[in-house]
Specification:
Blueprint: H1 2-5, H2 11-24, H3 27-51, H4 57-77, H5 79-92, H6 119-142, H7 145-155, H8 160-163, H9 168-176, H10 188-204, H11 214-223, H12 226-229, H13 231-260, H14 270-281, H15 283-286, H16 291-300
Length: 308
């Protein structure tokens, strides 16, 4: 940033660099950095668990509870320690530390037009508490009672350790989330016995011993024709496989929109925007396609005045 700030050839970059440096040398910036470090540290194990392909869903649910509990503990008792750490950092790098009892006033705003509150209130309530409450609310929204129940039910189909988490009642509860697939009178009564027979069968079959994921289980069932013998169980497994993918796909799309949508793309039509979204979300696939193939396909769509 110092290099850009001192560059006489690029006025725009100098201005931006100066503004960024000014913000970075502010006590509030340092406080937020330490707050971010604290929250990311608390949620690190959960984040890693949810990203693993072989994730243990029950452990992931347990980690959600741990993170929520830790965040609440930090909210109740962690502010003073965080403020002290920020003060030490500020003293080390000659950053001005505001008097927490002084009246807070944002830069560029008149004190007379603002509601009066202290720096202590601003840092503790407006920043610290608000950020933590937002994180807790985000966890509650993503892991509400229904989602948590679904994850608990999904874990019952985990084939590891000889189906250690298998639970007949929870799987029937899982089936009831899909009344269009499982009729209460025609299917649910038979599902229980179907599950009982299934678990005895697969635990006795050595071909099912080393399976690691639900997708492995589905493939092995098709290979052994068990999808025909236990059609209701296989339907449960298919739903279990579709649910995480569908949820993750929605999350990926909304996450991608923050990258793709900018001032330029705000002006393009929906079809073009959808195409940009598709290539961004599925970039791992598109990276494998040769540029020459893309140009040939584009050239062949209609006659053009020049060869690409």
């Amino acid at each position: 940033m110092k290099v850009f700030e001192d560059d006489p050839k690029n006025d725009a970059a100098r201005t931006d660099a100066g503004c960024i440096l000014y913000a970075m040398e502010d006590f509030e910036f340092a406080f937020l950095l330490y707050l971010m470090k604290l929250i990311l540290g608390i949620s690190y194990e959960l984040s890693q668990a949810l990203q693993r392909k072989d994730q243990d869903l029950l452990n992931a649910i347990g980690l959600v509870m741990v993170v929520k509990s830790r965040l609440q503990e930090v909210r109740d008792n962690g502010f003073d320690k965080l403020l002290q750490e920020t003060n030490i950092f500020a003293n080390k790098y000659d950053i001005d530390i505001p008097n927490m009892n002084d009246v807070y006033c944002p830069r560029g705003r008149s004190r007379r037009r603002l509601e009066s509150f202290t720096f202590l209130y601003y840092f503790k309530v407006e920043l610290f508490n608000t950020v933590i409450d937002t994180q807790v609310q985000e966890l509650n929204d993503r892991f509400d009672n229904v989602n948590t129940k679904l994850l608990e039910c999904l874990s019952c189909l985990d084939p590891r350790d000889s189906f250690a988490n298998f639970n007949n009642e929870k799987l029937i509860e899982f089936a009831r989330f899909y009344p269009s697939k499982f009729d209460e009178l025609a299917d649910i009564p038979f599902l229980s016995s179907n599950l009982d027979n299934f678990i005895i069968d697969v635990r006795a079959d050595s071909d099912f011993v080393n399976l690691q994921t639900i997708s492995d289980l589905a493939l092995k069932m098709v290979e052994k024709k068990n999808d025909i013998v236990y059609p209701l169980v296989y339907l449960l497994i298919k739903l279990a496989l579709v649910l995480p993918v569908a949820t993750a796909s929605v999350e990926r799309v909304f996450s991608a929109m923050t990258f793709v949508k900018n001032k330029l793309l705000n002006r393009i039509n929906d079809d073009w925007f959808n195409s940009c979204m598709l290539t961004f979300v599925e970039r791992d696939i598109f990276d494998t396609i040769d540029d020459e193939d893309i140009m040939k396909y584009f050239q062949g769509m209609k006659n053009r005045r020049m060869i690409l």
